[in-house]
Amino acid sequence: MAIPDEDVAQVRAATDIVALIGEHAALKRVGRRWSGLCPFHTEKSPSFSVNAEEGFYYCFGCQASGDAITFVRETEHLDFVDAVRLLADRAGVALHEDAEAGKDRKRRTELLDAMERAVEWYHQRLLRAPDAGPARNYLRSRGYNGQVVRQFRLGWAPDQWDALATSLKLSERVLTDSGLGFVNRRGRAQDAFRARVLFPICDPSGRPVALGGRILPPQPGQRVPDRPEPKYKNSQESAIYSKRRTLYALNWAKHDVIAQGEVVVCEGYTDVIGFFEAGVPRAVATCGTALGEEHFTLLRNFARRIVLAYDADSAGQNATQRVYEWERKHEVDVVVAAFPGGSDPGELARTDPQSLARAVKEARPFLQFRVDRILEAGDLSTPEGRARAAESALSAVAEHPDDLVRDQYVMQLSDRCRLDASRLRTKLEELRAQPRPVAHEKKDRTRHETPEEYRDDAPAPDDGYFGDDGFDAAPTPTRSGPGLEALKLAVHRPADVAGRLQPVLFVDPLQRQAFVALLEHDDLHAAIEAAPPEVSLLLRRVTVEEPLAGDPELGDPVELVVMVLLREAVRRALGDVEKQARGLDASWQAGAAETAEVRLWLAELAEPASARIAADRLVAWLSERESREA
Ligand SMILES: [Zn+2]
After folding, report:
1. DSSP 471
2. Most Cβ neighbours (<10 Å): which of 9, 370, 423, 437?
3. Of 432, 312, 325, nearest to 365 (Cα)?
């Protein structure tokens, strides 16, 4: 299953690492590198860096580092070969691997191709076909003009059994595996979508991976079918589509989400489009599943504020505990936007577009939203009503894991319900002391018959690609200072340091090993691959760090760094020489003569006219001394 080295190198070269990582984290250009919040550990200020030219990333917080292949392995949980295949797919590089492995890759490409062709076919059908007239009328009635239809590549699946299957001539296997169709009981190919308006669902880079379909509202005089079809229907999961990891419209919303640091999560595709139309182009929707852990791990890399644009009280009831957990774990703020009178965002986009932006701006913290909802439902005009409302609001407050947060709500309740805060605190402690078993929550979920759209099938809490949160404490693997600066120059300005930097100048053993690795290999990738792990980690780190810029006051950084390093190395060596000389009477004279000369050169370093010659002599002396000792 091996992939030839030339192919791997070609895949690396063909991969835009900034675009690749940009699908998981927001990156900003800083000088020659890119920087952002680390997708591998939770942090508030960016310590993650990418060097686009060399194709490496490095995190100063958790030391996660590597190239495009490492990144894909870590984020997609793939082995090396699969990671290379995935990148080859993206970059359109053909790999020379064995037949079986090649088949796998080909299959994925086939499915993506089929999905792309289907999306385009359905789209053209909606734009042009006479039978799509009712669909166009419906969309127009929802306020969608041609520009919206094109922007979101909406489509129309005609009211026929096999229009797509026969038009695209897809093989039965591709039709079935892509979820675009199936083989019916009579052994004939049949389309999965029929008489539906289609919303293509894309991966973050914009490739269609699935479809969501909505039936048209019944026409006047239309017979109501005996077995009504569900209003929405989504593609089944496939090799290219996992609903737990997919957010509708993230590919279109990404830009504004990053720019605003905020993402609006809706319930449906039409709500998303409504937000875009109302001038809030940072809305996404889950695809037939509730917002779960994996959605959070995806979103937190793009935005810190997650606005739930749906009735969080009914939809999020079961996920309440987890919302607090995720808020804390991923350091995001989950807020809830309230819409007047139970109207949905898709509707409001037409009737009152400004209200959408306003609702997002005025979104309240998750717990505040729940408390308000409870108090609004209660009767606060009587003492009995206020006591009941306070008690039921307290049980919502009790679920919050942070005692400082809880206490602020206690004071708020005390104020709004005119009750003594200390009495409320006692009550709250009683509520928190009551066991709230997890099993009970599960039972609840099935009993309430949660609709498919809201059903929460979030994975186990640890199922994400962050791993352990203990990362932050990892020590920096090497000392900073001139040695590190020199390494940066050796990586970023190899031509300028050629002949100027020598291994003897590095006092720190790790930095020296890294420098030697650079000398011994033709290019950075080869050096990083061949070096022992701690050395290659250091090299990856300096790859994403900017070397010092030139400064008119200080002169060229190469010169500066060489001088500082040289002085440090010479002083250290002089100390050693003197120490040894003191112990050996016979060589004392020779030692003294040697050190006197070295000191003279050291002094000459300060004179611009003689500095270069003195430096060369000192380097020669250091090297010679070292070989003498070895
Ligand atoms: Zn990190």
Report:
1. G
2. 370
3. 312
Amino acid at 398: A
Note whether 524 and 543 are within 8 A (CB). yes
CB 563 within 8 A of CB 605: yes
Handedness of CA 3, 6, 12, 13 (dihedral sign): negative
| Structure tokens given for 610 | 């003689």
Mean pLDDT calculated for residue range 418-428: 93
Looking at the chain, the number of H-run helices and the number of E-run strands are 29, 17
- Closest to 128 (Cα-Cα) out of 160, 150, 113, 143: 150
Q: E strands, 250-394, where?
A: 262-266, 283-286, 305-308, 333-336, 364-365
Cα angle, residue 73 at apex, residues 68 and 79 outer, rounded to 5°: 125
Residue 61 alpha carbon to ligand 1 centre in Å: 5
As a whole number of angstroms, the distance between CA 149 and CA 156 comes to: 11
**164: its two tokens:** 């797509």
**How many whole angstroms separate alpha carbon 120 and alpha carbon 122?**
6
At 319 the pLDDT is 61
Collapsing DSSP to helix, strand or coil, 65 comes out as strand
Q: Tell me how far apart the alpha carbons of residues 411 and 421 are, in angstroms, rounded to a whole number.
A: 6
20: phi then psi, degrees, rounded to nearest 5: -60, -55
| Residue-by-residue DSSP string for 496-520 | HHTTT--GGG--SHHHHHHHHHHHH
Judged against a pLDDT cut of 50, whether residue 445 lies above it is answered with no
* pLDDT surpasses 70 at 135: yes
Quick one: tokens of 123? 């789209």
- Measured CA to CA, the distance from residue 293 to residue 463 in angstroms comes to 8
Structure confidence by residue, pLDDT tens digits, 178-229 = 999 999 888 899 999 999 999 999 988 789 999 999 999 887 777 666 667 7
Angle at 359 between CA 353 and CA 364, to 5 degrees: 175
Cα distance between residue 284 and residue 23, in whole Å: 15
Beta bridge partners of 36: 27, 48
550 pLDDT more than 80:
no
End-to-end CA distance of the chain: give it in Å, rounded.
45
Q: With CA atoms as reference, report the closest residue to 337 among 329, 328, 345.
A: 345
What does each C-alpha distance from 459 to 121, 299, 467 come to in angstroms? 35, 16, 14
CB atoms within 10 A of CB 90: 18
Work out the widest C-alpha separation in the chain, in whole angstroms. Answer: 116
**Alpha helix locations (H) across 249-292?**
250-260, 269-277
Q: How far is the CA of 37 from the centre of ligand 1 (A)?
A: 8
Residue listed under structure tokens 């986009």? 349
Cα(326) to ligand 1 centroid in Å equals: 18
The rounded radius of gyration (Å) of the Cα atoms in the chain is 32
Q: Give SS3 for 375.
A: helix
- Phi-psi map region of 436: left, alpha, beta (phi>0 left; psi -120 to 50 alpha): beta
How far from chain centre, in Å, is Cα 217?
38
Distance 511 CA to ligand 1 centre (A): 22
Identify the CA nearest to 233 among candidates 157, 177, 301. 157
Question: How close is the Cα of 146 to the center of ligand 1, in Å?
Answer: 44
Separation of 204 CA from ligand 1 center, angstroms?
A: 21
For residues 86 and 72, the answer to whether their CB atoms sit within 8 Å is: yes
Task: Tally the C-alpha atoms within 13 A of residue 314's C-alpha that lie toward its C-beta.
Answer: 12
CA–centroid distance, 58 to ligand 1, in Å, is 8
Please give the structure tokens belonging to residue 518: 């650079």
- Sign, CA dihedral 129-133-138-140, equals positive
